[in-house]
Amino acid sequence: MFLTEPCGWLYSHAAATDYTVSLRHSTPGNDITCGQKDYKGNSQPFCRISGDAGEVADACDANPACFSFDMEGNYGGYLKGTGQQQYTEGFNNFCKLAADTACAGTYTFKRRNSIPGNDIDCRYKDYEGKLQPFCRVNGDVKDLAASCDANPECAAFDMDGSSTGYLKKADGPTQYTEGYSTYVKRAGGKSSAGSG
Question: What would the mean pLDDT of 83-92 be, rounded to a whole number?
Answer without folding.
Answer: 90
